[in-house]
Amino acid sequence: MMLTWLCALALGAGTTQPAKTSPAQWRAQQRAAAEKSEKILREAEKVRGLLGQYQVMQAAYLQDNSTAFRLIFGQYLSWHQTYLGLYAEARKSFSIAQEPSPEDAPPPLDHGYKPQAAIEAIPRLAKDARAVFLNEAHNAPVTRSLTVPLLARLRAEGFDTFAAETLYETDKDLQQRGYPTVDSGFYTQEPVYGEMVRTALRLGYKVIAYEAVSDATGDAREREQARLLYERSLKKDPKARLVVNAGYGHIVEGGAYLGGRSMAQHFREIAGVDPLTVEQTMLIEHGLAAEDHPYYRAAVEAAHVDKPTVFMDAAGKAWSLRPKGYDISVLFPPEQLVEGKRPAWLTLDGQRQPYAVAGDLCRGELPCMIEARYLAESEAAVPADRIVFGLLDPRLGLRERARIRAAEMHSELYLRPGRYRLTVSNADNQTIATQKIAVTEPGGATP
Fold first, then answer.
1. Which of 29, 143, 298, 411 is the most buried (most CB within 10 A)?
2. Mean pLDDT computed over 286-305
3. Are the CB atoms for 83 and 277 separated by under 8 Å?
């Protein structure tokens, strides 16, 4: 897991360095914070169940407000918040301010580009590509919400191999089993990420892992991952067409990255294939409006953006915020909460619908976690969705905690039509209740 903090260091360097702190001191503080973060994570992982693990991590986070620790451990905390469906909280715990760059292209709407739905435009742009690389922000699963429905569109274009970051090659039965489990990977614990892998399997993609198996870091790690991608896809089958999900700058096509070159750059050299790169992390809503890219709000308002959007010129060429680094930029609309609770993007472009649940399923044991698994899948399966009731900031007073709990005891799971098994568990990972449910098609039929 030490590789994860290297990403955090790279992303945070130079952006939040405290005043009167030298670069050397700041790096030392980050390294100390990273070591502390790893230790806390290892201790949390000894606790049975995600809810109990998160409580350990939340308590540690609240006890140390130093800048370096909040930067590094905030990223770790945000991952676990996404696992529990706490998406707004995750965005607040860790957010990378998207500052303007001299490499930014001019705003698209000022130069003849027109908005188009990304779900429609990207498959057209990928029609002749051998490989499509899409990136994501690990703390913001909204950047997975386009990739999931895109998989069907790309499959229809002939893409047949899917690779996802941090899948474990030790899960030898993933393809045959047809769904991810808790042992399938790291980010797969987040339900939308799990749904991404599950969707690829259901569509008939060959799903491969490409995570580096050595202790390599920086450029060496990027090259190892590119080599594994090539060896497990195009080298085995020269006719294969590859879709890759990766984090942040692993897909950048130009310039220096982590002291060397990115995975995408190495892949182009090793495979002789220039991937179509789709950037999804820069034009998103951040924890604070001041952290959004300067183009973001103006483009959202001018183009009336209500779905993932790309910008195209009259010749059919896509706009990219950083044209030297990526082929296409995707702009995601600001988060819309359904009934003030959960984000509307959880429908995954209309593939899922809300299913109401109430806190009385917890039978008075708070906090509690409710998970929905496909009925045909095992208890080890990554759930299709997961929510938590009664998980509040421990610094609040008893009266305030009681008031918030009473107000938040209704929510929705987002599920495809089908049959599911609900499992309700407490902070000690004990099962409180189980229940079978059916989510019907909009017309009323149950698959």
1. 143
2. 94
3. no
> Distance between CA atoms of 73 and 1, rounded to whole angstroms?
13
Q: What is the 3-state secondary structure (H, E, C) of 193-223?
A: HHHHHHHHHHCCCEEEECCCCCCCCHHHHHH
Give the chain's radius of gyration (CA, Å).
21
pLDDT at residue number 390: 86
Nearest to 367 by CA among 341, 344, 348, 393: 393
- 178, 260 in Cβ contact below 8 A? no
Residues 168/211, Cβ–Cβ less than 8 Å: yes
Give the CA dihedral 304, 306, 308, 314, nearest 10 degrees: -30
For residues 413 and 372, the answer to whether their CB atoms sit within 8 Å is yes
Side chain identity at residue 348, one-letter code: L
pTM: 0.93
19-60 pLDDT, tens digit per residue, is: 778 888 988 999 999 999 999 999 999 999 999 999 999 999
Percent of residues, the chain, with pLDDT higher than 90: 81
Degrees, nearest 5: CA angle 118-4-173: 75
Please enumerate in sequence order all residues whose Cβ is within 8 A of that of 194, keeping only pairs 6 or more positions apart, or say none.
Answer: 179, 180, 184, 188, 382, 383, 384
